[in-house]
Amino acid sequence: MVNKFARFSSLLVVAALVAGCEWTSTSSGDSWSDSYNDMNFSGTYRSSSTQTSESGESTVTRSVSNQTVGRISQTTGSFSCGVSDLVAGSMTIKVGDVTFSDDGAGRLVGSDGNSSGSIAYSSGSGSISMQGGYGNAYAGQSIVASYSWSTTSSNSGSTSGNTITAITVSQSGQKLTLRCNNGYTLSGRFTTVNRIGTIIEGVSSRYNAQFEVSGSGAKMVGTLHHNDSSRSLNGTLTDRSGTYDISGTAAGL
């Protein structure tokens, strides 16, 4: 696979060396300079091309809402979604007035602060333990689930069907959060920032900013670029199903 992100980054780094300055992150991030506060990559980046799997497989993510997957017997209950390869962190379960959130590591946390559960992403099955209420107040209650899961098929290096078609970027200083339309939430920071050109009063500088983010069982490294009319994102995403090139654009500021 030709790495579009690598080509994109190399050209911009050369430009930055010619005209601009550079910031490199430390582990603590203490070296961040307020001179970069005009850099703003927040917004929604929409796919400008398909995603190609390095492993030669296509992955499609699907979602379902409010599916009854089991019942509580006395104070506990088991459930099965009937599908495998659930997306980590995507599950929400309701039992009566208690809502369970998936922490992305296989644990279900009840909104009452006492009830809990677990989920095996590979099989789509799990269990719930109700700790609140009087006696067996939850006995017979339905276990209602909402979740996402992935299916993979061989494609001999063809496209992945645009599993990720939009990424919403939230930037606060050097820190980034990327929320993908397939349910992934990735957090991290810029690793290197290059200002390209000079600062002109009333005009935003152009930047080439490399980043690294992770979460939801996935990791992405890439670059965000801002020019005079638009902003772009190019990266490489790695998750359980393979490695993909990601690209998208957003309107300029």
Beta-strand percent range: over 45%
Structural classification: mainly beta
* SSE run: HEEEEEEEEEEEEEEEEE
Give me the number of helical elements.
1
How far apart the termini lie comes to 33 Å
The geometry reads as elongated
Biggest sheet architecture: 8 strands, antiparallel, barrel
Rounded average pLDDT: 77
Radius of gyration: 22 Å
| Fraction of residues in H or I helices | under 10%
Strand order of the largest sheet: 2-11-12-13-14-15-16-17
> How many beta-strand runs?
17
Low-confidence stretches: 1-20, 155-162
Question: What's the multimeric state?
Answer: single chain
Description:
- It is elongated, with a radius of gyration of 22 Å.
- The protein is mainly β.
- It is built from 1 helix and 17 strands.
Indicate the topology.
Layout: H1 4-18, E1 20-24, E2 43-47, E3 57-71, E4 76-80, E5 92-95, E6 98-102, E7 107-110, E8 116-120, E9 125-129, E10 142-154, E11 166-172, E12 175-180, E13 185-196, E14 206-215, E15 218-226, E16 230-239, E17 242-251
Antiparallel strand pairs: 1-13, 2-11, 2-17, 3-10, 4-9, 5-6, 5-10, 6-7, 7-8, 8-9, 11-12, 12-13, 13-14, 14-15, 15-16, 16-17
Quick synopsis:
This protein is mostly beta strands and 253 residues long. Helix content is 6%, strand content 51%.
Keywords:
253 residues, 8-stranded antiparallel β-barrel, 6% helix, 51% strand, disordered N terminus
